[in-house]
């Protein structure tokens, strides 16, 4: 079976704009739930200004905790600038992601830089990260539409993607930050982008604002994309992009992929425990479109195994009766 690679971003994209402050310990426990379900790669936190995103103030502690408890988990962290990269390196991070928005206004709102400054800073961060021997991802945010400037020209997205690839990004992540994309456009853009970044280095980050997440994921798969960001329970959004709702839910993407001939390494039914744990942290119901169905599958599996055990017990007692 062909592999589909999923990076779960619920710890970063998911938690960054939640009102409830989540403790470091709870974040680590969430990661343990994800790993128990087969998640092999996460975006764990961001080394941004704690004034801008208070939820991520414990970034170094999260990274340290993951290294101690889940040393084989592939862990990326978001860095907005050189200062963020240096903090990440000091914390022992092995992979960083820069975030370059494709429009002027989105860069201003998100990282207080012009588009030109953001391009230069992102390229610098990528080069320095590579020189330090760590892996890199480069987000191209608002790659479909911008909440401030409307439709983002594809030609510009191509130029920026090529630029980040040339600067050393191991992976270029095309982000539908506000979840406004539709499948035909996803197919068109990813096919075009594959002419400037090799498909095995191209990734997509989808939001489910208009319920198009799974359809868009399928369009990306058809365009040859095999690397995806998704968020367990669909938790997500961006505090600086009005209208950005939850992410494409990991469980929905896994269900789609596993029933379409791809192997993700993730057990969607086991993800339910991670989602329930996140619900207990955030105090509200979570879950992608498939979550309720997955819960029923878990109940059925539990019932079947209880019945199985009961049957075995009956057989055992019958055997022991007959043998005496
Ligand atoms: N980590 C921690 N602190 C940082 C930092 C980083 N990566 N970069 C800058 N700072 C600190 C500076 O040291 C300075 O601190 P001080 O006020 O105590 O002196 C303060 O932040 C302002 O620095 P400045 O360089 O002027 O930054 P800014 O105010 O223009 O903000 C960002 C720029 C990028 C730091 C800020 O906009 C940010 O963190 N944005 C977060 C974006 C985000 O997470 N978006 C969601 C994900 S896409
Ligand atoms: Zn996002």
Automatic annotation (TrEMBL):
E.C. code: 4.1.3.4
One of the GO biological process terms: L-leucine catabolic process
Residues annotated as domain Pyruvate carboxyltransferase: 4-272
GO molecular function list: hydroxymethylglutaryl-CoA lyase activity; metal ion binding
InterPro entries to which the protein is assigned, alphabetical: Aldolase_TIM, HMGL, PYR_CT
Pfam family name, one: HMGL-like
Keywords, comma-separated and alphabetical: Lyase, Metal-binding
Alphabetical list of Gene3D superfamilies matching this protein: Aldolase class I (3.20.20.70)
Family indicated by similarity: Belongs to the HMG-CoA lyase family.
Protein name: Hydroxymethylglutaryl-CoA lyase YngG
Species, as recorded: Pseudomonas fluorescens
Gene responsible for this protein: yngG
């Amino acid at each position: 079976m062909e592999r589909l690679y999923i990076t779960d971003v619920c710890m970063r994209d998911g938690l960054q704009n939640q009102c409830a402050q989540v403790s470091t310990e709870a974040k680590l426990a969430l990661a343990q739930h994800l790993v128990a379900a087969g998640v092999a790669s996460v975006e764990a936190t961001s080394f941004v200004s704690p004034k801008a995103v208070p939820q991520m103030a414990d970034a170094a502690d999260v990274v340290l905790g993951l290294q101690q408890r889940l040393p084989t988990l592939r862990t990326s962290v978001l860095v907005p600038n050189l200062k963020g990269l240096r903090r990440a390196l000091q914390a022992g991070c092995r992979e960083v992601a820069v975030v370059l928005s494709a429009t002027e206004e989105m860069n201003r709102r998100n990282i207080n830089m012009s588009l030109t400054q953001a391009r230069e800073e992102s390229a610098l961060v990528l080069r320095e990260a590579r020189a330090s021997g760590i892996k890199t991802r480069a987000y191209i945010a608002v790659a479909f539409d911008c909440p401030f400037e409307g439709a983002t020209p594809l030609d510009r997205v191509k130029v920026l993607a090529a630029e980040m690839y040339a600067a050393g990004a191991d992976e270029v992540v095309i982000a539908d930050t506000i979840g406004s994309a539709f499948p035909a456009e996803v197919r068109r853009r990813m096919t075009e982008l594959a002419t400037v970044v090799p498909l095995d280095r191209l990734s997509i980050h989808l939001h489910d604002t208009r319920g198009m997440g799974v359809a868009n994921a399928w369009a990306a798969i058809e365009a040859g994309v095999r690397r995806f960001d998704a968020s367990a329970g669909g938790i997500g959004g961006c505090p600086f992009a009005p209208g950005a709702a939850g992410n494409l839910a990991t469980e929905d993407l896994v269900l789609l992929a596993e029933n379409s001939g791809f192997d993700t390494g993730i057990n969607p039914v086991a993800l339910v425990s991670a989602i329930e744990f996140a619900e207990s942290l955030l105090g509200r119901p979570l879950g992608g479109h498939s979550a309720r169905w997955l819960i029923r599958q878990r109940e059925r599996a539990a019932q079947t195994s209880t019945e199985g055990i009961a049957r075995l017990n009956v057989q055992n007692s019958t055997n022991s009766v007959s043998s005496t």
